[in-house]
Amino acid sequence: MMGESSRCQKIIQTYYTPVYRYCYAALAYNAAAAEDCTQEVFLIFIQKQHTLDLTSSILPWLYTTAKVVVCNYRRKNPIHEDLQGAESVEDPAYAAKFFCAVVRSYLTEEEYRLLYDYYSAGHANHRMVAKQHGMQLSQLYERVSYIKRKLKRFTPTINHKVSKNENGEDDHGK
After folding, report:
1. Fewer CB atoms inside 10 Å of the end CB: C or N, the chain?
2. pTM, 2 dp
3. Helix axis angle, 2-26 relative to 92-106, nearest 10°?
């Protein structure tokens, strides 16, 4: 029993910050609401820990639970102070800021910085980025590829849906 308790403690310590970042971004950067929702996610986790498979990655379950908790919070608190002056979700700058915060919640600080530097520098400056991060160019490409796969695995709602035509080929939304 003690092993299970320490495993749950480790899960909470490991994933509290990423779940908080997700809630924070999803609630338009309302710190108090994000803290409330994050705590609720982990209360649900503790209540359901005996029914969950703690041997596999629990992060997707935590993010799904956070999404439900945030939706419930919004339903119960349709207008809170931080949202009254907020930009419209249709505003591209706001959407980009929200997307960056969500992506950041899935990555370590090092991974986020590397990805940010990689895409900010442009193709011609990738050697410089590799050097700044203490790696060869091929290592940079491998690392960026790994980070992109990681994001695809944990962000199914961000991935664009590709439909199949009758031949089983991708239509790519055409």
Report:
1. N
2. 0.48
3. 170
Distance in angstroms (rounded) separating the CA atoms of residues 69 and 161: 25
- 28-52 per-position pLDDT tens digit: 888 889 999 999 999 999 998 888 8
Query: CA 44 to CA 144: how far, in whole Å?
Result: 34
d(CA 173, CA 27): 30
Span 67-89, pLDDT tens digits: 999 989 988 886 544 444 444 44
Looking at residue 67, its pLDDT comes to 92
Q: What is the DSSP string of 3-26?
A: HHHHHHHHHHHHHHHHHHHHHHHH
Mean pLDDT of 43-67: 88
Sequence length of the chain is 174
Q: Check: CB of residue 30 under 8 Å from CB of residue 80.
A: yes
d(CA 90, CA 76): 23
